[in-house]
């Protein structure tokens, strides 16, 4: 805590404020020097030195007031205003420029506010004291001079650094700006550019390929560590944060994003990224497919952490009766055992239907009748047109995510001329950028739907599809990475579908009466009677697609690959509804 009650009322409390603009200074002599001077001054003047470390702003700039806005000095000022700092306390600083390097008026106002609150300021570099009891014109002039010098020095340094980076950026196409580069690259001996460390680049490519294939970050880490793949750097193993940072970095595309420190001490992008600055490690299609896969796994909640991805519909399947989550429940061995999709609320003893749907049967019916998943393109690892179409779809979805992020950035406030504000001459450019981004997103949606339609036209036979589904569930082929394959299928489902409503025992006949009448008018009297039958009440599931489409399937209970009825609507409107019976299947 910053405030402190002295056990010896005869001694005043001294607070040592230490600030340095970079962590490199911490490694040098700056921190030790400032601490030593504070200790010596407190001992010499019989002050009780506060022993906390709360008043340290390490790597925080005073030029733009970050130490006051969000730093330790700001915390001290807040405690001072709240009366938590005893009157007569002493604030020890190496020099006045440790407090502020802002414009003179801002610095002087800060300085006077501290003194007016009854705190004495002591500059250790010369032992000079500033307090309300003895403050005079000479003190005012000295402080103004100190703050003016500090601001001029900081501004000059900022301008020089800015000019240096501007010059470097102008030469970015011909030579590196800095020796820093991603861990899978290194600076060439002649410093003319960067070269690829191939064994590390292969690891990076593998990470993106597996991420695009549906594998979550935790699985990637486990595979790397179990495979004894050496980590980049001195770490003893691969970690979640580092792998996630690689997967999010556009440096794999060859881009470099220059940054600068903001007013809050955090790094912010400084201008547009420089394309072609690094050697590209992967292509844009793979990058965007990986981004889309990561987004879908994040939105659905949880990636798989065990040895086998058991539930392809995690986060998507909902109870048709209470709209709660459907959970995968195991009932042990035996004829009535196995895995079932069951309402989570019912499992917790709440008022809902406890009956479940055999998970293997549900998975078979879903994959057999939801053709948009296009299972064959995932199982057959070839270069067919269907496979490429599916890759293009995923890349488009990933590109859409990137465009949406650009829109969010464009709408945000940008730090310009030291303040958070929009500059009038920038507004026009931002609006043009937003318009272009929105146009590209609309185009991406249109191309996505065209590719899905083309993929469906190239789908394989039903017989082969059923065989593929069996392979997906029980494959013993050692060449098949069953987890990777099932992860791909789960990612494909998440990319196409928003939710799946599951009705393990069908609906109340009254609920489905309008549908039964529609079917009867279509000449399917037996099906209409089936839906009305309070005893049979066939089970079904609804699939809601991201493009607005709706599919309802009533599988046959004795054979999950056959159905009683399919109802398809392009946009959920009954006017566009198409009814297919088992005669079609």
Write a structural description.
The protein has 585 residues and is of the alpha/beta class. Among the domains are: 145 residues, Resolvase, N-terminal catalytic domain (Rossmann fold, 3-Layer(aba) Sandwich), CATH 3.40.50.1390; 116 residues, Putative Large Serine Recombinase, Chain B, Domain 2 (Hect, E3 ligase catalytic domain fold), CATH 3.90.1750.20. A 6-stranded mixed sheet has the order 12-18-19-20-21-22. Strands 3-1-5-6-7 form a 5-stranded mixed sheet, covered by helices on one side. It is elongated, with a radius of gyration of 33 Å.
Number of helices: 19
**Largest beta sheet, briefly?**
6 strands, mixed
**CATH third-level topology of the domain at 13-157:** Rossmann fold
Shape assignment: elongated
Q: What is the name of the CATH superfamily of the domain at 13-157?
A: Resolvase, N-terminal catalytic domain
- Reading off the top of the CATH hierarchy, the class of the domain at 13-157 is best stated as Alpha Beta
Strands of the biggest beta sheet: in what spatial order?
A: 12-18-19-20-21-22
Radius of gyration: 33 Å
Instruction: Assign the structural class, choosing from mainly alpha, mainly beta, alpha/beta, alpha+beta, or little secondary structure.
Output: alpha/beta
List low-pLDDT spans: 302-307, 413-425, 509-514
In total, the number of strands is 22
Helix content: 40-55%
Mean pLDDT: 76
Tell me the span between the first and last alpha carbons.
Answer: 73 Å
- Name the beta content range: 15-25%
- CATH architectural label of the domain at 13-157: 3-Layer(aba) Sandwich
């Amino acid at each position: 805590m910053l405030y402190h009650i002295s056990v010896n009322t005869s001694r005043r409390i001294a607070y040592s404020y230490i600030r340095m603009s970079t962590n490199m200074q911490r490694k040098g002599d700056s921190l030790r020097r400032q601490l030593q001077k504070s200790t010596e001054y407190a001992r010499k003047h019989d002050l009780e030195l506060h022993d906390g470390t709360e008043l340290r702003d390490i790597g925080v700039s005073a030029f733009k007031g970050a130490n006051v806005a969000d730093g330790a000095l700001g915390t001290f000022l807040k405690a001072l205003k709240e009366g938590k700092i005893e009157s007569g306390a002493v604030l020890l600083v190496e020099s006045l420029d440790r407090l502020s390097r802002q414009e003179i008026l801002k610095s002087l106002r800060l300085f006077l506010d501290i003194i007016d609150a009854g705190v004495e300021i002591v500059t250790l570099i010369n032992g000079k004291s500033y307090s309300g009891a003895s403050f005079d014109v000479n003190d005012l002039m000295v402080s103004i001079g100190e703050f003016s010098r500090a601001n001029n020095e900081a501004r000059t340094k900022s301008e020089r650094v800015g000019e240096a980076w501007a010059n470097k950026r102008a030469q970015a196409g011909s030579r590196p700006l800095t020796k820093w580069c991603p861990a899978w690259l290194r600076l060439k001996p002649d410093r003319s550019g960067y070269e690829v460390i191939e064994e590390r680049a292969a690891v990076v490519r593998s990470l993106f390929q597996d991420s695009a294939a549906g594998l979550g970050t935790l699985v990637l880490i486990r595979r790397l560590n179990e495979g004894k793949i050496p980590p980049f750097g001195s770490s003893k193993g691969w970690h979640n944060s580092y792998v996630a940072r690689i997967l999010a970095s556009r440096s794999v595309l060859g881009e470099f994003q220059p940054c600068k420190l903001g007013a809050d001490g955090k790094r912010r992008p400084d201008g547009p990224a420089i394309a072609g600055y690094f050697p590209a490690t992967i292509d844009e299609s793979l990058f965007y497919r990986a981004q889309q896969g990561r987004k879908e796994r994040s939105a659905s909640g949880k990636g798989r952490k065990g040895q086998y991805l058991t539930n392809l519909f995690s986060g998507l399947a909902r109870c048709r009766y209470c709209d709660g989550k459907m959970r995968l429940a195991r009932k042990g061995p035996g004829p009535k055992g196995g895995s079932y999709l069951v309402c989570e609320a019912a499992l917790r003893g709440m008022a809902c239907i406890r009956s479940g749907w055999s998970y293997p049967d549900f998975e078979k019916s879903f994959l057999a009748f939801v053709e948009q998943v296009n299972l064959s393109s995932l199982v057959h690892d070839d270069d067919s047109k269907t496979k490429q179409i599916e890759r293009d779809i995923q890349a488009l979805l990933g590109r859409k995510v990137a465009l949406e992020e650009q829109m969010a950035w464009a709408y945000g406030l940008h730090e310009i001329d030291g303040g958070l504000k929009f500059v009038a001459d920038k507004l026009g450019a931002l609006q043009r950028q937003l318009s272009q981004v929105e146009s590209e997103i609309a185009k991406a949606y249109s191309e996505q739907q065209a590719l899905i339609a083309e993929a469906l036209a190239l789908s394989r036979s039903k017989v082969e599809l059923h065989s593929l589904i069996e392979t997906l569930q029980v494959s013993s082929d050692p060449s098949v990475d069953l987890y990777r394959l099932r992860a791909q299928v789960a990612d494909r489902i998440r990319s196409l579908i928003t939710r799946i409503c599951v009705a393990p025992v069908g609906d109340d006949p009254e609920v489905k009466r309008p549908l039964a009448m529609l079917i009867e008018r279509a000449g399917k009297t037996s099906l209409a009677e089936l839906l009305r039958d309070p005893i049979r009440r066939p089970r079904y599931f609804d699939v809601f697609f991201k493009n607005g489409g709706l599919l309802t399937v009533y599988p046959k209970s004795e054979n999950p690959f056959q159905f009683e009825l399919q109802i398809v609507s392009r946009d959920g409107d009954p006017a566009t509804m198409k009814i297919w019976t088992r005669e079609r299947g």
